[in-house]
Amino acid sequence: MSDIETKTKTKPKIARPRRYMVILLNDDYTPREFVIRVLKTVFKLSEDQSLRVMITAHTKGKCVVTVLPKDAAETKAKEATDFGAQEGYPLLFVAEPEE
Fold this sequence. Notes:
InterPro entries: ClpS, ClpS_core, Ribosomal_bL12_C/ClpS-like. Keywords: Hydrolase, Protease. The chain is of the alpha+beta class and about 100 residues long. It has a single domain, classed as CATH 3.30.1390.10. It has helices spanning about 30-45, 45-60, 70-85; strands spanning about 20-25, 60-70, 90-95.
């Protein structure tokens, strides 16, 4: 009899990077038109998408704008928040882990 070795290759499981939601938080001071402009400029949303996100945040207190890898989500949230701050508005976007 011959010795036969059976080798099986196992692929290491690569975990999918955790995704983060970029969330628009409502405030009572930033004009709606400005929020729409930020959504269109920073997140490249259409006019209709921007309007829906803004209205949802206005009525529910917050709205998910997009879901991205952590670094990208944090960068977009900071960029959009800074855009508002440059104009003197308390506009706030945050990045939170996807559930």
